[in-house]
Amino acid sequence: MTTTYPVGQSGSPKAFDADLKEQQEDRGSDIFYASKSRLMWLRFKQHKVALFSGVMICLFYLVAIFANFISVKDINSFSAKFKYVSPTEIHFFDEEGDFTRPFIYNLDRKINMETLEYEYTQGDTTYPIKFFHKGYSYKFLWMFETDRHLMGVDEGAALFLMGSDKLGRDIFSKVVHGARISLSIGLVGVFLSLVFGVILGGISGFYGGKVDTVIQRLIEVLMSFPSIPLWMALAASLPPHWSPLIVYFMITLILSLIGWTGIARVVRGIVMRLKEEKYTEAAVLSGAGNFYIIRKHLLPGATSFVIAHATLSIPAMIIAETSLSFLGIGLRPPVVSWGVLLQEAQSITVIANYPWILYPAFFVIATVLFFNFLGDGLRDAADPYMNRA
C-alpha cells in the first residue's frame, strides 16, 4: 500500500509533520483544527458585550428555576398592615459606625392626617438578615419539600427588597416567580415558531411551484394583519374559565402561530439559493430523497441564521406576552408574570406615589437588551470564515 502526501510537501512523513507543525504555529492550532462551531465560539468570545449578556441571561434563568429558594415570601401571602411599603433599607453599619452583618429596622405605621394614608417609618428594633433562613414550605426543583430560603428575617420584621403592592405582597418574590412565565414563554414560543418557520420555509423553497405559492400567500395574509389588534382578538377569545396552565399554553401557541412568518421567508430564500449548489445536484443524482436533501444539505446552511434569529425573537415574544398581560387580555391572575405585575401600574396616581411598582418593567427592559446584545454577537460569529476588518 502506497502512502501519498499533499502536493508541495516533501516525500517523507517527517517533512510533512514539520510543515504541518509550522502551519499550526503560524495560524494557531485551535484555528487550524477548529470545526465551524468551534470557530463560532472563538469569535463569539471576542464579543465581550454579548458574552456578558449571555452570562446575565443564564443568571436570569437560574433565578427563575430556583425562584422558591430565592424569594423571601410566599407570593400568595398578603398583609393588610404593610400596603405599599417602599423598598426596605438594608444597613451594614451599626450605630457606632462599625461594619456588621446586614440588618433592618422594624416598621412603625401611622396615618398621615392630611392625606389620610399610612406612612411607614423605621423603628428602633433591629432584625438581622439571615441566610438559608426558614420560611414557607415548597418543593425544591419540584421534587422534595423544604422550607429553606436564600435570605429572610425573623417574625415581627418586614423585609421588602422591592417594596410591597396594594395587598401587602412582596414585589421581589413576585418578580422572581414572574420570571418563570415571562422567560419560558419566550423560549417555548420561539421554539414553536422556529419549527413552523424552518419546516414550511424549507418546503416552500425546495419544492417551489404551487406549494411555494400557497405557503407564501398564507404568510402574506398573516403578515397583513396588524400585530397588536390580532393578538388582542385571539387572546380575548380564550374562555375565562380555562385554567392558568391552559391559558399559558394557548398564549404561547398564539404567539408562535403569528411569529413564524419572518423566519419562513428567510429560510425559503436560503434553501432556494443552496439547492442550486453542486453538492445538492450531486445528492439528487445519487438518488437521495427530497426530505433527506432538505434535512442534510439545505437546512444546515440556515443554521447560523436560525441561531441568531432565535436570540433576537425571544425578546419580541417576551414583550408580546407583557403587552397582552398588561392590557388584561393575556395571562390573568393568579398566574404571575412580569406583564401581570405591571397591570397595577396602569394608574398614573399609583406610579407617582409608589414608583417601585414599576420594578418588573426594568427586568423586561434588561432582558430584552441582553437578548439583543447576545443576538448581535451570535450574528457576528455566525460566519467565522468571513474576514472582517
Q: How would you describe the overall organization of this protein?
A:
This protein is of the alpha+beta class and 389 residues long. The chain has 2 domains: 81-169, no CATH class; 174-381, MetI-like (MetI-like fold, Orthogonal Bundle), CATH 1.10.3720. Helices cover 56% and strands 13% of the residues. It has helices at 13-27, 29-33, 36-45, 48-65, 67-70, 171-207, 209-224, 227-236, 244-259, 261-274, 278-285, 290-298, 303-326, 338-341, 348-353, 359-381; strands at residues 91-93, 99-112, 117-128, 130-140, 144-152. It has a 3-stranded antiparallel sheet with strand order 1-2-3, with no helix packed on it. Strands 4-5 form a two-stranded antiparallel ribbon. A hairpin with a 4-residue loop joins strand 2 (99-112) and strand 3. Helix 4 (48-65) packs across helix 6 (171-207) and helix 4 (48-65) packs across helix 16. It is elongated and about 85 Å long. The model is unreliable at 1-13 and 385-389 (pLDDT under 50).
Structural class, by secondary structure, is: alpha+beta
SS strand fraction: 5-15%
Average pLDDT: 82
Shape: elongated
| Major sheet details | 3 strands, antiparallel
- The number of helical segments is 16
Report the span from N to C terminus: 47 Å
Q: How many whole angstroms does the radius of gyration measure?
A: 28 Å
Q: Please, how many domains?
A: 2
Total strands: the figure is: 5
| Known CATH architecture of the largest domain | Orthogonal Bundle
So what's the oligomer here? Answer: single chain
Low-confidence spans: pLDDT under 50, at least 5 residues? 1-13, 385-389
Fraction of residues in helices?
Answer: 55-70%
CATH domain class of the largest domain: Mainly Alpha
